[in-house]
Specification:
Length: about 350
């Protein structure tokens, strides 16, 4: 068991992590390969265990209120390095948060033991018709859009267990097991190795009560972690645009400067939203509706900043930005599908309805 303490509150440690992940990103993307070295890096430096509550050997990043800003720094650092790795780690954190929130102490201790032993957790909730069912502790059916398929060996999933609301369940798999090849082939975020998985015949243990996965405010509040990874990707694309313009001796062009200035505004807007919302999302000082609504607004603000950055990056760099395998092409190809989180219109209108007659929380 690796008991090394994660150095999450030291910027230089995160900068080194970003650079190591970034250095491997092009190779991972070209091969559409699972970022095994990145995961081993996270494991060896204590980052996989850091999201666990302190009482089970973690540092509370994402499971305790005081860990919110540390987790924000870590997720954005991974987003700057490689969106695929950020996606996998964000799901890992999400799964651990749900178990710590809704599971029993015994379940949390078993999950913690798995994490300390080196397992990375997935969170797989997207259905394949007719859906995944859980009967007498045995699963029947499939899930689609399973990030880390074939490599993630522990997962928290949702399934129907006879009632109206889905249940959460913990399941263990062996490497390479149950993957349905060719079911999903995304153009971007290729290192997340997204595929469908057939769970039929596997045993699973329920977590919490039916409907807990959809319970507010956690269901909406958890989206801040995805936005934190997106923030890192925005920062990476911004830096790439600026470095490329300098390299091409176009940094003194006023039109390019205007584009860069607008990108920096979008980048900082996203960062400020995340700095504001992360402690609120992970705390308990606000009404559930305030927490869910604010995170939903932050999610839309970060998406808007990313879309603006994508458009301006394309205009600034022109056709060379679309050279297959180049850094700007890979960054944009990863960011575009990563932004397609579910129900953005509903997210915005629900938040607007909540805050129609209320001030935003401070």
């Amino acid at each position: 068991m690796d008991t090394q303490t994660a150095d999450f509150d030291r910027p230089t440690a995160l900068e080194r992590l970003t650079e190591r992940v970034r250095a491997r990103a092009a190779t991972v993307d070209a091969r559409a390969a699972f970022p095994a070295e990145d995961v081993q890096d996270l494991r060896a430096h204590g980052w996989l265990a850091a999201p666990l509550p302190r009482r089970v050997g973690g540092q509370g990043l994402g499971t305790e209120p005081q860990g919110a800003l540390g987790l924000l720094a870590l997720l954005s650092a991974l987003g700057r390095g490689a969106l695929a790795t950020g996606r996998l780690f964000e799901a890992h954190v999400n799964a651990l948060k749900l178990v710590s929130t809704y599971g029993t102490e015994a379940q949390l201790e078993r999950v913690a033991a798995d994490v300390h032993a080196g397992h990375i957790f997935g969170l797989w909730v997207t259905e394949v018709a007719p859906g995944l069912t859980l009967r007498h502790g045995v699963l029947h059916g499939q899930k689609s859009i399973c990030s880390g398929a074939g490599h993630v060996t522990r997962a928290l999933i949702t399934a129907q267990a006879g009632g109206e609301d889905p249940v959460m369940a913990l399941v263990g798999l062996s490497a390479g097991e149950r993957v349905i090849q060719g079911a999903w082939q995304l153009a971007g975020v290729r290192g997340a190795v997204t595929a469908a998985i057939d769970f039929s015949g596997l045993e699973a243990e329920t977590v919490g009560q039916p409907g807990d996965y959809l319970r507010q405010p956690e269901f909406s509040a958890g989206a801040w972690r995805t936005s934190a990874v997106t923030l890192g990707a925005i920062q990476a694309l911004s830096a790439c645009v600026r470095a490329t313009l300098v390299q091409r001796e176009r940094a003194d062009n006023p039109h390019q400067q205007a584009r860069v200035g607008t990108i920096r505004i979008a980048e900082e807007t996203a960062r400020l939203w995340m700095q504001h919302v992360a402690p609120i999302a992970e705390g308990n000082a606000h009404l559930p509706g305030d927490i869910a609504g604010l995170v939903n607004l932050a999610r839309i603000a970060v998406e808007a900043a990313a879309l603006q950055t994508l458009e301006l990056a394309q205009r600034a760099l022109g056709l060379p930005a679309f050279i297959a395998g180049s850094e700007p092409e890979r960054l944009m190809r990863d960011l575009a599908p990563y932004l397609r989180q579910p129900a953005p219109d509903e997210t915005l209108t629900e938040a607007a309805a909540w805050f129609m007659a209320r001030d935003l929380p401070c």
